[in-house]
Sequence to fold (171 residues):
Amino acid sequence: MANDFFSHLGKTLTDTAKNVGEKTDEFISVQKLRSQQSSLESKINKDYKLIGELVYQKYVNGEPYSEDLAALCREIMQTQSDITDLKDKIADRKGQTICPVCGAAVPKDADYCMKCGSPIPMQDAEYAHYEEAFSEEPDEKEESADTTFDEKSDAGEVKSDDEAEETGKEE
Fold:
């Protein structure tokens, strides 16, 4: 009886340690993604500041501004896209999805956003399940049952059953 108690206790401690390890790994991976996100957001803020300085200098100098600002704006848009990707990865690791309207994290099985009330569209994986069910092609038609392969034919011709019977009668 004491042996069963210690065996059960050992199993419980092992399972708990494993669970804590998995949660720690999840926490660390989420923190790394958040760190990357923060770094990218800081980069955007620096670019905003640089845009302001460029616009001001162009204004002061009476110069038109276009390509250098356009390049910075494109870089900001790409960085914002990278931030969105990181937010999606964080939400995915936490079993969540991102509301396309307000950007709030919501559970993957939610039909509506808990922050803004907007409907949450189905994820691609859910669509894939439905697409597989409806995209299966019917089996190929088999050759008609009234044709057979005449093994004695040198050319390997396919003959109808009637021709095969006649060939069999002649031999």
